[in-house]
Specification:
This protein has helices at residues 8-28, 38-52, 119-136, 145-158, and strands spanning 56-57, 70-73, 76-78, 92-101, 104-113, 162-163, 169-171, 178-182, 199-202, 205-207, 213-215, 222-224, 230-232, 235-239, 244-246. It has 255 residues and is of the alpha+beta class. The strands form five sheets. Strands 1, 2, 4 and 5 form a four-stranded antiparallel sheet that branches. It has a three-stranded antiparallel sheet with strand order 3-12-11, with no helix packed on it. The chain is globular, with a radius of gyration of 17 Å. The structure holds 2-amino-4-trifluoromethylsulfanyl-butyric acid and cobalt (II) ion (CO) (2 copies). One cobalt (II) ion binds next to strand 4 and strand 5.
């Protein structure tokens, strides 16, 4: 299909969608506590997106996905399906929000800590966040996708963690997942050249143990093969004339 470059006007529209997705993550924060189910978090987000934001939750019915958000707890790497499991003290979970507004997608996720996770779990979340930031900071015209992947991989592995290979970031726009694939590992100077108008996600999944994953029988839930903890952060960003513009970062927030 090829990479679809976005005009400055289109990037304005994508920022609207991006901010809505970021606002869902901000809204849901106070609801994430011991005893709440991931299904309840899904219902709250669904109502907020459809009623308050007048937007569309992109995951719902996407390739058969049954819910409006993804909730990935502890050893779940990504695409966890909200359900009736209660969150318990010490859990870490990723909530991944994608909204469609005026036809444009905004995709972002972050980790939430339930009660008091172990030091190890908190460190993993921080490493996943900082891995994403290392990748984002590489983005500018003239560099290549491999430079992003390399920066993420080098950082995560320097902290003794592994980078999931089986899932990646992606181009995004009127289509949820479009070209290019944004690998979170790689070699400098390799891969697609970054040019202004490219819009894609960076969303490294970082495992405390080994990088291998397994898909559960539900066809969606991905967990670490060795059952170690996994963490992920995600932003949608545009390549600008001299760097990057994080479309899912709310004004005043740090990436
Ligand atoms: N939001 C996920 C991503 O970052 C994709 C979820 S697909 C779904 O690409 F169907 F599971 F929702
Ligand atoms: Co994504
Ligand atoms: Co996402």
């Amino acid at each position: 299909m090829g990479i679809v470059l976005k005009t400055p006007e289109e990037i304005v529209a994508m920022r609207v969608a991006g901010h809505l997705a970021g606002e869902v993550l901000r809204m849901i924060r106070e609801h994430v506590r011991v005893g709440v189910t991931t299904g309840e978090l899904d219902e709250i987000c669904h109502a907020y997106i459809t009623e308050e934001q007048q937007a569309v939750p992109a995951p719902l019915n996407y390739r058969g996905f049954p819910k409006s958000i993804c909730t990935s707890v502890n050893q779940v790497v990504c695409h966890g399906i909200p359900g009736n499991k209660k969150l318990k003290n010490g859990d870490i979970l990723n909530i991944d929000i994608t909204v469609i507004k005026d036809g444009w997608h905004g995709d972002t996720s972050k980790m939430f800590l339930v009660g008091e996770p172990t030091v190890r779990a908190r460190q993993l979340c921080e490493i996943a966040h900082d891995s994403m930031v290392k990748g984002i900071e590489m983005v500018k015209p003239g560099l290549r996708l491999g430079d992003i992947g390399h920066a993420i991989q080098r950082y995560a592995e320097s902290k003794g963690c592994s980078v999931v290979r089986d899932y990646c970031g992606h181009g995004i726009g009127r289509v949820f997942h479009e070209d290019p694939q944004v690998l979170h590992y790689g070699r400098p100077g390799v891969g697609e050249l970054l040019v202004p108008g490219m819009v894609f996600t960076i969303e490294p999944m970082i495992n405390h143990g080994k990088k291998e994953t397994r898909l559960l029988a539900d066809g969606w839930t991905v967990h670490t093969k060795d059952r170690s903890l996994s963490a992920q952060y995600e932003h949608t960003l545009a390549v600008t004339e001299d760097g990057y513009d994080v479309l899912t970062c709310l004004p005043g927030d740090e990436i």
